[in-house]
Every structure is written in structure tokens, then in C-alpha cells.
């Protein structure tokens, strides 16, 4: 069991909410972790700073927050030479990386998993020119939809705000030109969305693709040629696994451990729900780069 851990929690959640969540989880964690240090974020970048500054001093970093706090923490931990293990207490709206790992969304159960039943699992992270991501890289429709989400409706409606935003975006999203260099293959085409997936969950929705694995050293690259309600139905409402190559689909799939993407103009790029501007990126999988506390994967 871990002797020394750091718990990072989102101070922007509100004092009462933070106190309530801590009262549900901290005693469970402290019962098994002799030295548990609490760090409260106050502004964007704090979680990344805490991880870079103190990550090598502890055996475990526990992140209590949503996808943004997890993304920051990943970017603080990934470059370290001596990386601690990572655990997540999912306290956000979508909690996509936690979902991809099958971590319980109930905070007490997630804390009990860390303290009593946790299985350490090595998973891939992905490095780009400037940042790291754990779950996905996307541009086009996905970035436009995410960027236009109203924060009030996001808080009230949760995952459904993503669907509402996507529906609004469909009629407005233009195609863009891109070039993908995957090994010795070069693809030049137009699309409404490019998506590089390491994890399976986006906007609290699991993509029904068995080939997406967090520890195989490969990214699933999805090129969406045209958008429409059929596309949304395929992505958001598919109830069974989908063979994208055999189905008559508007989505083209590739798998790769690295690639270079060039866009015809600067666009919003969505990394795990955080937005950046760019027109090119080099994307490389760091196979089994970090150990996470998660349930034993189903065989």
C-alpha cells in the first residue's frame, strides 16, 4: 500500500461542495495512506504545477475533479523521470478518462477502490508538440461543439449539453483541408472532424469500438467526412460494437502509434476537453507511460 500521497482537489468547486466531497473521501484514503497531503487548486495551471513540483516526492497522486483537472495533472506528471501512480476521484461533469478506466463515478466507491481494492494498471499517454493527453485529441466538429457549450446548461444538463451543442453545430460546421502522415502513408483530404482516441469516452459517451485500448500503444484515428444526424446516431447512440471499416459509414478509421497532422488553417484543437489553437501537431503514443489505480480490466 502507498505510504505517501498527494490529493489535489478543485478549489473552484465551491467551499461547501469541496468540504462535502472531502468528508466523503479523505477519511477513507487516510485510513490506508499514512501521509496524505492536500493541495487545493485556485486557478488554471495549479494542478499541473503541483504535480511537476511535488510529483516525485510522493508514491501516489490522487486527483479529485473533472476532466480539466485530470488533464492538467497528466501534463504535470508525464514529463517526470520518476512518475508516481495516478488515481482519480471523478468529480466533474463527464469524467471521460475515469469512464475509460471503468473507475466508479460514485466518489465513496472510487475512494474505496484506491484504499482497498485498487489494481495498478499501466496505460498509454500521448505526447503532442506542446502538450500531453490521456483521452483524445480532436478538431473540427468536436472542438466547435465543445467550445460552444454554455457553462450554465453544462452544469444543469451535464452530458446532454454536449449533444445539444453538437446538434446546434451540425448545420454550421464547414469542412476543412488536412494532411495526415502516418508511417509511409500520406492522406490529404477534407473532413468536418479529426479525432485521435486513446480512451473510449467522450462527452460521457462510450465509443462502441473494441479496437480502442488504453494500453496497446496505438491511437485510433477517425476521419469524419461529413456531418449529419446519421453521424450523431452512429457515435452517440450505437448500442453495440460497430465495425467502421465494413459498415457503410462516413467515418474512416486508422490505427497508429504516431502521426503528423497539418491543417489548412489555424483551428481550435480539443485535448481532453481543454482548448488550444494550432494548425499542425506531431502526435506520439507513450506506451504504458503511467500507472493508474483502476478496476481489473474485463477479459
Question: What does the secondary structure layout of this molecule look like, with pairings?
Answer:
Layout: E1 4-10, H1 15-30, E2 35-41, H2 46-54, E3 60-65, H3 67-77, E4 85-90, H4 96-100, H5 107-117, E5 119-127, E6 132-133, E7 136-140, H6 141-147, H7 151-157, H8 160-170, E8 176-182, E9 185-191, E10 193-197, E11 201-202, E12 205-206, E13 219-224, H9 229-237, E14 251-256, E15 258-271, E16 274-294
Parallel strand pairs: 1-2, 1-3, 3-4
Antiparallel strand pairs: 5-6, 5-16, 7-10, 7-15, 8-9, 8-15, 10-13, 11-12, 13-14, 15-16
Helix pairs in contact: 1-5, 2-3, 6-8
Helix share of residues? 25-40%
| Residue windows where pLDDT falls under 50 for at least 5 positions | none
Query: Briefly, what CATH class of the largest domain?
Result: Mainly Beta
Total number of helices: 9
Cα-based radius of gyration, to the nearest Å: 19 Å
- Sequence of secondary-structure elements: EHEHEHEHHEEEHHHEEEEEEHEEE
Class based on secondary structure composition and strand pairing? alpha+beta
- CATH topology grouping of the largest domain: Tumour Suppressor Smad4
Beta content? 35-45%
Please tell me the CATH architecture of the largest domain by its name. Sandwich
Largest sheet: 10 strands, antiparallel
- Principal-axis shape equals elongated
Give the domain tally. Answer: 2
- The CA-CA distance between the termini, in Å, is 25 Å
Whole-number average pLDDT?
A: 86
Number of strands: 16
Organism: Jeotgalibacillus salarius
GO cellular component, one term: plasma membrane
Family: Belongs to the diacylglycerol/lipid kinase family.
Pfam family, one: YegS_C
Amino acid at each position: 500500500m502507498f505510504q505517501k500521497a498527494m490529493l489535489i482537489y478543485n478549489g473552484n468547486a465551491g467551499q461547501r461542495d469541496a468540504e462535502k466531497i472531502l468528508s466523503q473521501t479523505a477519511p477513507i484514503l487516510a485510513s490506508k495512506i499514512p501521509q496524505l497531503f492536500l493541495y487545493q487548486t485556485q486557478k488554471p495551471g495549479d494542478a499541473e504545477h503541483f504535480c511537476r513540483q511535488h510529483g516525485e516526492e510522493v508514491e501516489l497522486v490522487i486527483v479529485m475533479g473533472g476532466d480539466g483537472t485530470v488533464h492538467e495533472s497528466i501534463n504535470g506528471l508525464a514529463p517526470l523521470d520518476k512518475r508516481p501512480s495516478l488515481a482519480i476521484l471523478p468529480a466533474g461533469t463527464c469524467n471521460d478518462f475515469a469512464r475509460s478506466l471503468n473507475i466508479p463515478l460514485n466518489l465513496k466507491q472510487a475512494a474505496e477502490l484506491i484504499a482497498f481494492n485498487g489494481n495498478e494498471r499501466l496505460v498509454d499517454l500521448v505526447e503532442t508538440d506542446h502538450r500531453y493527453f490521456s483521452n483524445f485529441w480532436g478538431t473540427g466538429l468536436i472542438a466547435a461543439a465543445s467550445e460552444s457549450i454554455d457553462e450554465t446548461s453544462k452544469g444543469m444538463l451535464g452530458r446532454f449539453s454536449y449533444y445539444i451543442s453538437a446538434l446546434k453545430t451540425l448545420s454550421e460546421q464547414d469542412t476543412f483541408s488536412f494532411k495526415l502522415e502516418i508511417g509511409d502513408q500520406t492522406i490529404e483530404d477534407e473532413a468536418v472532424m479529426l479525432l485521435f482516441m486513446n480512451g473510449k469516452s467522450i462527452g460521457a459517451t462510450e465509443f462502441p469500438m473494441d479496437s480502442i485500448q488504453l494500453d496497446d500503444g496505438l491511437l485510433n484515428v477517425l476521419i469524419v467526412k461529413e456531418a449529419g444526424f446519421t453521424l450523431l446516431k452512429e457515435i452517440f447512440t450505437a448500442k453495440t460494437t460497430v465495425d467502421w471499416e465494413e459498415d457503410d459509414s462516413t467515418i474512416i478509421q486508422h490505427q497508429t502509434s504516431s502521426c503528423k497532422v497539418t491543417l489548412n488553417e489555424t483551428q481550435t484543437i480539443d485535448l481532453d476537453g481543454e482548448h488550444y489553437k494550432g494548425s499542425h501537431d506531431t502526435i506520439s503514443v507513450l506506451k504504458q507511460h503511467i500507472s493508474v489505480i483502476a478496476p481489473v480490466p474485463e477479459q
